[in-house]
Fold these 2 entries.
Entry 1:
Amino acid sequence: MNKNFFKLIIYVATFSLVGIVFTQLYWVKKAVDYKEEQFNNSIHLGLKSIVNQLLNDYNDSTLKMMQEQGEKCDFERTSIYDVIDHKELDKLIHQEVGCYIDYHEAEYAVFSKVNNSFAMGNYDRYKAEIMNSQHLVSLDCLFSSGKYYLAVHVPGQKNLILYRLLGWLLLSALFILATIFSYYYTILTLLKQKKLSEMKTDFVNNMTHEFKTPISTISLASEMLLKPNVFESPDKTQKYAGIIYDENVRLEKQVEQVLQITILDKENTKIKPINLDLHKIIHKLAENFKLSVKERDGSIVTQLDAEDFTIEADRVHVINMISNLIDNAIKYSPDAPNIKLETRNIKQGVQVSVIDNGMGISPEHQRQIFKKLYRIPTGNRHDVKGFGLGLFYTKTMIEAHGGTINVKSEIGNGSQFDLYFPFHSVIDISNEE
Ligand SMILES: Nc1ncnc2c1ncn2[C@@H]1O[C@H](COP(=O)(O)OP(=O)(O)OP(=O)(O)O)[C@@H](O)[C@H]1O
Ligand SMILES: [Mg+2]
C-alpha cells in the first residue's frame, strides 16, 4: 500500500472517529436538555392545573358573584387560609406533580414575596431554594395580585433526569467505547500487517540476493564447461564441475533451510530427544567454526564450567541452535570476531552462552529479533546476508525443549545469547494449549 495513502486512511479514520464521538456527545447533551425542558414543562403545567382546581374549589360566593359580574374583588380582606385548604393543596400536589418528582424528597410552599413569609406547604430544608425555584406560579387569580406564589423545589433534579435517560446513556457509552476499541484494534492490526508485509519484502529481497550468487557462479562455471577446448584440460573440467556441484549443494541446503523454517511452528515441531554430551557438541562446533573465524583474524574460545553437561535433547536441533548463535556472532562482528562459548549449571539444567564483541543490539531491537523474518534494519545495505529466521528457529526449538533463550547486549559492545537447556523437561509441544 502506498505510504501516503496509508497515512491518509489513518488520518481520515481518526478524524471520523473523533467526529462521531463528538456528534454522539452533542446529541446526548441535547437529549438531556430536551428531557429537562420536558420535565420543567410538566411540573409547570401541573402547578397551573393545581391553581385552576383551587380556583374551582373556592366557594366564596361573593367572589364568584363578583367574578361573574366582572368586578374586581377586594382580596385584601381575605386571608390566604380562607382561600386555600392545606390538605387539599397537598392532595393536589401529590396528584398533579407527584408522578414527575420524588414526592417525599420534593418540598413545596405557598409563600409571600412581599414579606418573605411562608403560608403553607411541606417546606423544611429548602426554604431558600423554594423561593428561587424555577417551578413557580403566582396565585394572582386567587389572592391579591403579586403577593402569593406556589413553588416546588425538586432536589437532585439533574440526577433524576439523567436517571431516566440512564439506559440510553449507557448504550451510547457502550457503543462509543466499542467503536474506539474496534478502531484501535483495526489500526493496530493494519500497522502489524504493514510491518509484516515490509518484512516479507525484505525476506524476498534477501533470498533473491542469496540465491543470485550461487546461480551466477553455476552459470559461469557451466559456460566455461561449454567452451570447446575445455576437455583438453581435465583439471579445469574437474574444477568447474566441482564448483557447480558445491554451489548446487549450497543452493539445495539454503532452499531446504528456508522451506523448513518458514513452515516452522509449534504444531509441526518434532523432537527426538536422546542423551547428549553438550560439551562434546560445543567442542566440535568450535572446531568447525575456527576456520571461518581465523579467516577474519578472530578467535573462538571455550570455557565450559558446567559439571553436569548431559542433557536429554534432539541432537540435530541442538547443533543447529548453537550454530545459529555462533554464525550470528561472526556475521554481526564488523571487526575481527572474538567469540567465547561458555557453559554452566543453573536450575536443573545447563546454560550455554555465546558471547561476541560485535556491533551489539539496541534494547528496542532485542525484543524483536526472535520474530520470524525480523532483521535489524540496515537501510538498503545487503553486506550481511541472512533471512531473519535463525533466531526465530532457535527460540521455537529451545522452547520446544522446555528451555529459554535470552539476550544481553549493548550497542557497540557486543552481545551475549544465553540458551538454557533443562536436563530432562522436554515438553511435548504438540500437546501445548
Ligand atoms: N550477535 C549479534 N549481534 C548483533 N546483531 C545480531 C546478533 N545476532 C542477531 N542479530 C540481529 O538479529 C537479526 C535476526 O537474526 P537471525 O539470526 O534471526 O537472522 P539473520 O542472521 O539475519 O538471518 P539467518 O536466517 O540467516 O540467521 C539479525 O538480522 C541481526 O540484525
Ligand atoms: Mg542468523
Note: DSSP finds twelve helices and eleven strands in the chain.
Entry 2:
Amino acid sequence: MRTVPVALGARSYDVHVGEGALPKAAGLVPDINGCERVAIVSDANVDRAWGDAAAEAFAPLGSTGEVERLVVDAGETSKSMQRVGALLEEMASRKVRRSDLLVALGGGMVGDLAGFAASIYQRGMALVQAPTSLLAQVDAAVGGKTAVNLAAGKNLAGTFYQPRAVIADTATLRSLPEREYLSGLAEVAKYGFSLDPALLERIEACTAALLRRDPEVLEDIVARSVAIKASIVAADERDLDDRRIMLNYGHTLAHALEALGGYEQWLHGEAVSVGLVFASALARELGYLDAAEADRHRQVLQALGLPVTAAFDPAAIESAWMMDKKYRGGVRWVL
Ligand SMILES: NC(=O)c1ccc[n+]([C@@H]2O[C@H](COP(=O)([O-])OP(=O)(O)OC[C@H]3O[C@@H](n4cnc5c(N)ncnc54)[C@H](O)[C@@H]3O)[C@@H](O)[C@H]2O)c1
C-alpha cells in the first residue's frame, strides 16, 4: 500500500492507495472527534459489491459501532439537487449527527453527491472518500470538489470540501465494468501526456498488465496519478489560477462531445481519449508538438482500447462550447 499526502495546511489529508486498503480503513482514517456512527453513501451497484465490506471496515470509527447505509440509484441522474435534498432528509430521519462520519463509497458520481451532502449537512460533517472506480481513484476523490448537476449544465452547483482521508482500494476495481475501467485509463494517460513523462513510459511498458488489472501495476499507476493530482490541488486548491487548468488537457473537445451526446453516448474518459488525440493534432499543427509525439497519443490510447476518432458537426461543437462554464469569450485550449 502507498500513502500520498495532499498538503493543504490544516485541511491536509492522506490518500491510501492499494490492494486491501478498504479492510484497513479504521486504522488509516484519523480520529473523528465525537463520532458515534458512520453513514455510508453508495449507489446500488457499489453497495451490492462492496457495501458489506465497507460497513465492517468503517464501523469501528464510531463509538457505537453502528453503520447507516444510504443507497442511491446508480447513474449521473442521481447527481441532482432533488437527490441531495432527499439524501439530507434521509440522514436527518436516521438521526445522523454533525459529529458523525460520512463515507462516500463509489465512483465519481457518489463522491460528488455525498461530498456535497457532507459539506452542507448541519453546516458540514467529517467526510471520507472511498472511491471504487478508476476515474474516482485517480481524479474525482482527490481535491475536494463536490457538485451536483443543474438543468443548465453539469456540476453547476457545489462546494470545495476536503475529506479527512481517501481510501482507494484497488481491489474494488475488480468488479468495475470493463468500459468504465478503460474510461478511467484515459485520465491516467492524460496525466502521462501532460504532466509526467515517466508515467507515460510506465503505461507503455505495462499496457497488457494494466488491461488485466494487475494489482502491482494498478497500485503504482493509481498512486502516481494521485500524486500528480495532489500536487496540482496543493498549489491551487480552489481552481483560481491557471495551474489546475493543466488537468483539462483533452477536455475542451471532450466536454462538447459529451454534451452533444446527451451525456449518454460517451463515457467521460472515452470522450477525453478522442479529445487528447484532437488536442495533440492541434498542438502539432501549431508547432508545439512534433509528429512522433502526436502519433504517440493515438498509439497509447488505441492500445488501451480507447476510441481515438469521432464524427462530429463543427457548428454543433462550437455551440456546445459556448454553453460551457469554462467559456470566457473564446474557447480555451490546453496544449
Ligand atoms: N469532483 C471532481 O473533481 C471530479 C472529477 C472528475 C469527475 N467527476 C465526476 O465523477 C463522475 C463520474 O465518475 P465515474 O466515472 O466514477 O462514474 P460513476 O460514479 O457513475 O460510476 C460509473 C459506474 O460504475 C459503477 N461502479 C463504480 N465502482 C464500481 C465497482 N467497484 N464495481 C462495480 N461497479 C462500480 C457505478 O455504479 C456506475 O454504474 C461524474 O459525475 C463527474 O462529474 C468529479
Note: The pocket of nicotinamide-adenine-dinucleotide is lined by residues 43, 45-46, 49, 74, 76, 79, 106-110, 112, 132-133, 135-136, 139-140, 143, 145, 154-155, 172, 175-176, 180, 268 (CB under 6 Å).
